[in-house]
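Collaboration report, partner site 2.

Our partner group contributed sequences for two proteins of shared interest, and the home lab folded both. The records are reproduced in the order in which they were received, starting with the first partner submission.
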Amino acid sequence: QVALVESGGGLVQPGGSLRLSCAASGTIFGLYAMGWYRQAPGKQHDFVAGISSRGSTNYADDVKGRFTISRDNAKSTMYLQMNSLKPEDTAVYYCNVAGSWGQGTLVTVSE
């Protein structure tokens, strides 16, 4: 069974940066594609970014150029570097690895 723990969320002003982490256990981390998703209040669960087992990445259009997904297989950890944050990025961010979900971490972008 895969266990995921997200961290790094918080309150940040518009234009600021945060780095989210997703630490995994209970799986051979390097074998899997994985990704980040988010859910804003009253909205659906949306894809944010994905990374393949070989490191290829893809992004939702509204975060391209601002967010960077990466992974460290030796640490069984995935990251999401978020720059130039906007109020509309406010959401609970979830990681997904091997079909399992973390508990989510809240990102709030506000003055």
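Second partner submission, folded after the first:
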Amino acid sequence: QVLLQESGPGLVKPSQTLSLTCTVSGASITTNPYAWTWIRQPPGKGLEWIGYITYRGDTGYSPSFKSRTSISRDTSKNQFFLQLRSVTPEDTAVYYCACLLEDYWGQGTQVTVSS
């Protein structure tokens, strides 16, 4: 059974960096051809694709987030990470990590941006 679990602060102040971790169990993040994705859902809105990191460590980002986003990984811990810089209240959302190829999703974690 493959499980994904998001973790990180639930409250971030404006202008700071949002940092989240996705811990994967039951599958290796280095397994070909998996790509590991971050997605979010702001309140009252649809899903927004943020970006991904592949099994090789290559990354790709949505143009909407590219300028202030970094996705990285720690293969020794089977984790991958999201950093979203210079956040505003519009970044308030439920953040999900996922493997879309296999439709594996974490349960999501609420992040609120507020002073």
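Feedback sent to the partner group on the second submission included the following. The mean pLDDT is 97. The longest strand covers residues 18-25.
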